[in-house]
Amino acid sequence: MNAAVDLSQPVHVDRKALLYSALCTRILTMEMTPGSTIVEQALCEEFGISRPPVRELLRHLAAEGYIELEANRSPRVVALTCHTLRHFSLAAPLIYCSVAQLASVRATPGEIKRLRANLANTAIAIAAGNQSSRTMLENSFNLEIGLIAKNQCLLPALRRSLIDHARIQKIVFPRTDDECAIDDVNTIHKNHESLVDAIERRACEQASQIARANFEIMRKRIIDYTSPEALDVEITI
What we know:
The protein is an all-alpha fold. It has helices spanning 15-28, 40-47, 51-64, 82-106, 109-128, 131-149, 154-172, 179-200, 204-226, and strands at 67-68, 76-77.
């Protein structure tokens, strides 16, 4: 069930913005499962807005890659298939490394400060075992680096990749009590800290290498998830 949204706020609150934020969060954390139907009327009732702005927002989400719109069918959360895993694995390292290099050239002290604040909050989420919060914070971290890179060609590709990144991460890091998963999560976080250090020092090549190293952790977990070792079971006939 979707988490309830608190609408007991001043009248001037932008409910359309609340709806956008809620849908993005629900999709990225897989509270709304891939391929699931989105009921417009339910959103209207939950957020207290009419259908026209809801439909406008759904078109915007479709353009960003969060949902799929087809004629004569209800909107659906974008699917997550074996093809998604393949496309993500091919494109993501190119995007992440390029963005990290550009961010290293263009980052300002204020932007570095925001990245470090994000990492501090992520560390709290990791320590609490709050996977959904960690997912959203890491998504914000990666998006912030894309914004720092200031490249209008790369940013849309990064935004689209991060939708799949968050959902794949939710699948390949399914438990918070798995020691290997915990080690990988901590390694990714430490790499993020090193990445910020590299960006601050204008170390473009090192920033790219760190971004690639983090992606390789994801790639390995994808492979382990999709091609697990066979069970060692003795079969007698």
